[in-house]
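tool_call: predict_structure(chain=1)
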Amino acid sequence: MIKKNKKAVSLMISYVLLVAIALLLSAGVYVWLKVYVPKNIETCSSDVSLILQNYDCDTLGEIIITVKNNGLFTADGLFIRASEIQGDLPTIALINPNNDGPDEPGRWDFEALKLKPGEIDTKTFNYPSDVSNIEKIQIQPFVIGKEGILLCENIITQPLQNC
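tool_result:
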């Protein structure tokens, strides 16, 4: 009588099942991550850059800002914040007196909707009523993407004199 080794067959089946389960789990994780992780994350290019070319403060609580796009790409606008103390982080949003832009303090959308490289734009802002003077100003450009405003990393902070 020939004796069959059934133990070796069951050991081989267990290895095959173990490998099949591992492959199925890794394929499931791959499909889940492909759906879960966003494909394209919109960002503002690091080559979007603005400089504060000129400013003028008057006694009526207004500041006239002139910015120039010195980057390689167009900018759709900027956020402008100020600080009363030189060492503080600028958190005071300046006010658009003409209400010709969005109803968001400190936001400036450029006139032609985009400021192309090398172009200059000027706008007047008011100080908030509780601010007597401005010691420092911060400008952060943004671009408008498919999902809204994309803030750029190139933030300019500049001390001001006689404001």
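agent: The first strand starts at residue 50 and ends at 57. Proceeding to next step.
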